[in-house]
Amino acid sequence: MAIDPDDFAAQVNYLAAIGRMIVPRALAFLGQEILFTGYGPFNEEDLAELLPEGARYYIAYVDEYVSDVPEDVAFDLVVVGRTSYSEEAITDAIDRGVSHRGSFRRKGSWMSYSSGTTGGTSM
Asked: Which end of the chain is more exposed for a tag (fewer CB within 10 A), N or C?
């Protein structure tokens, strides 16, 4: 198989351009607490795989809210799916933000996961 140097260089340049665009945006999630709840259009596990190490996330279901969320966690971002989202989880996320910070500022860093299969869109 012959490799055309110009085509190869174009592919490398394309990947470099994508990296320059994505990496700074991904790093913005460092130290953030993220809650996923609901179904569609994206799978929350797939979305969570895009997060850098250092972003901490939880997954809540309509019939089962995560029980391993420490009391001191206040969410920076809540990702809500189109259907079957947990109103309890959303309310809890808002209450945590107000009671722990008085507003929604960034804090904390580590990784946590509760098993699940579907995801949501940004709110």
From this structure: N
